């Protein structure tokens, strides 16, 4: 019996040593960070400016990780300061080149700027580049705001 115990320990030891020397048992090299998570596409609500019978919204966009975005359309829901839906609008924000910060502005006809409490990015209606749909575009969008009205998704 005593010999059987020694024999079993020898098998475990040699089996472990044998596996450690095979290429399949070597640890895989870690994947580069760029391959595991794409950089965010930042969208900042920077300014709401009263116009004659409209509210002009200024958005600052940045796409540091690319690719170039040739078509970007968002479905936005405007809420009052009391969080009641004011209206729904669609805005086109392209082009958005890789590595560049850009400012896009649009007028919201008939909207009083003081009646905008927050803006929901309800849906990404389009997000394409030269090679087709941009992977994880909606997930990559990171909204922020510099005004009292919050931009969120």
**Secondary-structure class:** alpha+beta
**Would you state the CATH class?**
Mainly Beta
SSE pattern, N- to C-terminal: HHEEEEEEEHEE
Overall tally of structural domains: 1
Assigned CATH architecture: Sandwich
Keywords: Signal
Protein name: Tat pathway signal sequence domain protein
Protein described:
Residues 1-20 form the signal peptide. With 153 residues, this protein is of the alpha+beta class. The chain has a single domain, classed as Immunoglobulin-like, CATH 2.60.40. The protein is 18% helix and 44% strand. It contains 3 helices and 9 strands, in the order ααβββββββαββ. The protein has helices at 2-20, 33-36, 137-140; strands at 41-51, 54-62, 71-79, 85-92, 101-109, 118-129, 132-133, 141-145, 150-152. Strands 3, 4, 6, 7 and 9 form a 5-stranded mixed sheet that branches. A hairpin with a 5-residue loop joins strand 3 (71-79) and strand 4 (85-92). The chain is elongated, with a radius of gyration of 27 Å. The model is unreliable at 4-23 and 29-36 (pLDDT under 50).
Summary tags:
alpha+beta, Immunoglobulin-like, five-stranded mixed beta sheet, 3 helices, 44% strand
Write the layout of secondary structure elements.
Blueprint: H1 2-20, H2 33-36, E1 41-51, E2 54-62, E3 71-79, E4 85-92, E5 101-109, E6 118-129, E7 132-133, H3 137-140, E8 141-145, E9 150-152
Parallel strand pairs: 1-8, 6-9
Antiparallel strand pairs: 1-2, 2-5, 3-4, 3-6, 6-7
Protein name: Tat pathway signal sequence domain protein
Keywords: Signal
Signal peptide: 1-20
Give the gist of this structure.
With 153 residues, the chain is an alpha+beta fold. It contains three helices and nine strands; from the N terminus they run ααβββββββαββ. The strands form two sheets. Strands 3, 4, 6, 7 and 9 form a five-stranded mixed β-sheet that branches. A four-stranded mixed β-sheet has the order 5-2-1-8.
């Amino acid at each position: 019996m005593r010999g059987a115990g020694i024999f079993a320990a020898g098998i475990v030891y040699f089996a472990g040593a044998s596996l450690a020397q095979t290429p399949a048992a070597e640890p895989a090299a870690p994947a580069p960070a760029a391959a595991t998570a794409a950089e965010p596409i930042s969208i900042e609500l920077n300014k709401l400016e009263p116009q004659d019978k409209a509210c002009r919204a200024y958005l600052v966009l940045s796409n540091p990780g690319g690719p170039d975005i040739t078509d970007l359309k968002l479905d936005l829901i405007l809420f009052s300061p009391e969080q009641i839906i004011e209206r729904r609008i669609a805005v086109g924000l392209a082009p958005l080149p890789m590595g560049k910060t850009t400012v896009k502005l649009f007028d919201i006809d008939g909207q009083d700027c003081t009646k905008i409490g927050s803006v929901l990015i309800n849906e990404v209606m389009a997000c394409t580049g030269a090679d087709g749909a941009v992977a994880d575009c909606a997930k990559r969008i990171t909204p922020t705001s510099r005004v009292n009205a919050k931009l969120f998704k």
